[in-house]
Amino acid sequence: MTRKRTRKFGLIGYPITHSFSPGYFARKFEKEGIADAVYDLYPLQEIGEIDTLEGLSGLNVTLPYKEAVIPFLDQVNEEAGFVGAVNTILFQAGKKKGFNTDVYGFEHSLIPLLPEHRVIKSLVLGSGGAAKAVQYVLNKRGIMFKIVSRTRGDITYDDLTPKMIEDYQLIVNTTPLGMSPKVDTCPNIPYDEIGPQHILYDLVYNPEKTLFLKKGEFQGAQIKGGLEMLELQAEKAWEIWNTAKI
Hints:
The protein is α/β, with parallel strands linked by helices and 246 residues long. It has 2 domains: 7-100 and 230-243, Leucine Dehydrogenase, chain A, domain 1 (Rossmann fold), CATH 3.40.50; 104-228, Rossmann fold, CATH 3.40.50. The protein has 7 helices and 11 strands. Strands 2-1-3-5-6-4 form a 6-stranded mixed sheet. Helix 4 links the parallel strand 7 and strand 8 (144-148). Helix 3 packs across helix 4 (129-140) and helix 3 (102-110) crosses helix 7 (227-243). The model has no long low-confidence stretch (mean pLDDT 94).
């Protein structure tokens, strides 16, 4: 009997010592009896090192390479092209194709939070690759938004006023502020102006409840951490690796 070859998957980024993905896929492989796959970390100090990796079937991409990886790919699917960021790569027939499953994860975890028959506007904190997926979903859902960033946004944190916080009921943190081990940090916004009409969504998953979310919860806001989004995007990546074609 011919033994099936082991398929190699993994995550690139730097640093990636506290990643969600290896544990998630290890549990998935064990639970579903997937014996022909392994998932490893590939901490690349430079994105060009991706061309030295061999024998891969698929990769996930995290900070700081979701945008920088695109020139190293042979193809990018339409959605990832619109977003301008890639977090999933399919290796097939000697080629690399990029996808963005953050879009799927964010959209499907956000929808249950959105109030029916009420127009809301959003503040997106941060302007990196993850923020681009968030912007894509907000555009798709017809939600007006402003990017808040120290350097690349529509406005800076210093520009935020009580009236603006009142007008923008959905606030999405796409920055790593508050991520373990720096759990005592959070975006610098006027939390005192947040109330029960607000939804605070944090893409950070570790800890489960960041300081950003704790401050919002204290003010009565509805809160959501990033774990469900990560699980959804991981499952979508697995689907791509097993069914997509180049």
